[in-house]
Amino acid sequence: MWLKNCWQVAAFSHEVGATILARRFNDEAVVLFRQASGVVAALEDRCAHRFLPLSKGKVVDGTVQCGYHGMRYDGSGRCVKIPGQEQIPSKAVVRTYPVVERYKAVWIWMGDASLADPALVPDFHWMDDPEWTACQGYHHVEAEYRLLNDNLLDLSHESFVHTETIGNAAVADSPLEVTVDGSTVSAYREMRDCPPPPFYVQAAGFTANIDRWHTTIYTPPGFHVIKNGSRPAGTTIEAARAQKLTRERRVMNMITPETATTSHYFWSIARAYALEDAQLTDYILTETARTFDQDADILAAQQQALSADPEAAFPVALRADLGAIQGRRVLAAAVEREAAGRREPAKV
Ligand code: FES
Ligand SMILES: [Fe+2]
Predict the structure, then answer these.
(1) What confidence tens digit (pLDDT) does each residue in 191-222 have?
(2) Contact 5/109 with Cβ under 8 angstroms?
(3) Residues whose beta carbons lie less than 5 angstroms from ion ligand 2
(4) Whose CA is nearest to atom 1 of ligand 1?
């Protein structure tokens, strides 16, 4: 159920400093820390000596010192110091994971390290593009990552879960168009001549009816860029853009599985208007966090129901599910391809 030969977000850059950050990804325990050079390293969270989790230790001189007998490991996973002895056994190493820092985030590769090409980091440039103003946040979600994918590929739930912020009836009432291109699923919805929901009044300045659109662009395992925007009702997008009447955003969602039933949900909202307005940034941050709190609540309750009946399959599919269904298809195909690829070398 997991894709491992891919980059996934491990942390935002600001979370990783001179102390250990311990997290689980794909049910593997990892410690992240910044070396003396400033480069982030990721090690398995288990000392090679007596298996104490390294997260019980601390960073000393750019190395991780085990909290039990003081062995120190550098960013390459090699033991570089053992108290009371000169000789370092060749087996005194821990697994390392490739990491790359990009777009204000630390990306980790949980699979075959020889395939970890930094060029494969998915495009989330809006997080640090000067043409956009972005803010970011994190939710720990008590649900498996495919439920989060489903949630973002079917935004009709905004009409019921997010009525205080971004939702109103127009969302669920407008048809969804879904296209699949290779492993990318796009789910597009246009909501015409609808009243602006509360967030669109406060964060976009609309008081009269709007034409609103959103497209969720999904790539496995857990990446969603939602391109959304709004303009005065009845204007074409070209005319509204020319007159700077559109309010366009990128809602970036980076989901990394933690365990079979929990997920890390990293998100960032970038806007292409009012770039210098710090008060607006605060408002967007607060209201987005509140919106995603509502998702986290729904998803946790859904996971509980699923965990109570693990053999059950969803018996009903709605038209609005099409994006989520296609998302699960491309994900399953990618997982299958990866599993097949792993078997290949074993046969040889
Ligand atoms: S368990 Fe880590 S040094 Fe002994
Ligand atoms: Fe939501």
Answers:
(1) 999 999 999 999 888 999 999 999 999 999 99
(2) yes
(3) 295
(4) 50
Q: Which of 43, 64, 68 to mutate to test the pocket of ligand 1 (most atoms within 8 A of CB)?
A: 68
Q: Is the per-residue pLDDT at 312 higher than 80?
A: yes
How many angstroms separate the alpha carbon of residue 73 from the centre of ligand 1? Answer: 11
Ligand nearest to the CA of 156: 2
Average pLDDT, the chain: 95
Indicate the pTM of the whole model.
0.95
What secondary structure does DSSP assign to 145-208, as a single string?
Answer: HHHHHHHHH-GGGHHHH-TTTT--HHHHHSPEEEEEETTEEEEEEEEEEEPPPHHHHHTT---S
The DSSP symbol for 66 reads P
Domains of the chain from N-terminus onward = 7-120 (2.102.10.10), 125-335 (3.90.380.10)
Tokens linked to 57:
């230790």
